[in-house]
Design goal:
This protein has 332 residues and is mostly helical. The chain has one domain. It is 54% helix and 3% strand. It has a two-stranded antiparallel sheet with strand order 1-2. A hairpin with a 2-residue loop joins β1 and β2. α2 crosses α9, α5 packs across α8 and α5 packs antiparallel against α9. The longest helix has 29 residues. It starts with 32 loop residues before the first helix and ends with a helix.
Length: 332
Amino acid sequence: MPVIDKKGSSGREPWNHQTPVVFSPLFSWPPKPRDIFVALTKRWVTPSRNVLFLLLAIFVCRWCLPDMTVMQTLSSDWILPLFLRNYILMMSVAGGLHLYLFSFRAQGSRLKYDHREKLEKGKQFTFRNQVWDNAFWSLAGGATIWSIYEVAYLHAFARGHVPTFGMGDQPVAFVAWLLVLPIMTSSHFYLIHRLLHWPPLYKSVHRLHHRNIHIGPWSGMSMHPVEQIIYMSSVLIHWVVPSHPVIFLLHIYSRCLGPAFSHSGFEKLLAKDVDLIDSADFHHQLHHRYFECNYGTVDAPWDVWFGSDHDGSEEATRRTMERRKRMYHTMT
């Protein structure tokens, strides 16, 4: 088992974390059927943010969407409530996590990856404050662009312009979407994330997100609007491959609300000493610390295949630093 970076090879303080990054066993060779089954199903049968987003998608689809005949016309009567709902969801999830973990410090530093207690202030941030900067970009850009994608899909759905199926008519297809969606979004994220680290795009677009080295719940969707459009573009698959509005909503919630959890900085959410759900992602926390590693997620091993993985060990830190030097030398 790798040893987590205790010295901080970059000259920084150690991580408050002892578990190395482990990728999904889906692509392991030789195959491990039991591990594969657990990896595919665990997220949907245990308390997790994935189940939370699925239940939210079902609730919104069942109780919050207007009649299809209403959505056939682009009207403020249904579009404005949709925008308002998404702003409230963003503030509730990202803002709620921030209050719980950073303002109220409800679980102190338990299971917090980074030793630093507070988020930062400085002239690199809008309003010279990381939290206000992150909240502004998450709401003004993130929730707005998310809502535009959602309006476009629901309008096309109501007019019969996207392929769909009924949940009761095609239960196998519905379950297949649940199993495939994490792999698909992981692969899309890796590809567009590598693109965003291309120097011209990094300097003009992605740098805004990487102002956050010590990350918090509002950091997840704090992106340049161009990046937000590209990042959410994986939902365009629903214009091509038959799905269901619940699947679309689950997909876009995982893209837009999921980052508040994955950037929260805490491995799990606790209530006293009881684990509630998994929260942040150490794999991505390492990306914010070392930049040129872990472009994807653990659901698909693209980083392993292309040599950009970092498992948290000192050896991986040294390898990443050497890789960064070679990349920057090539750029200059």
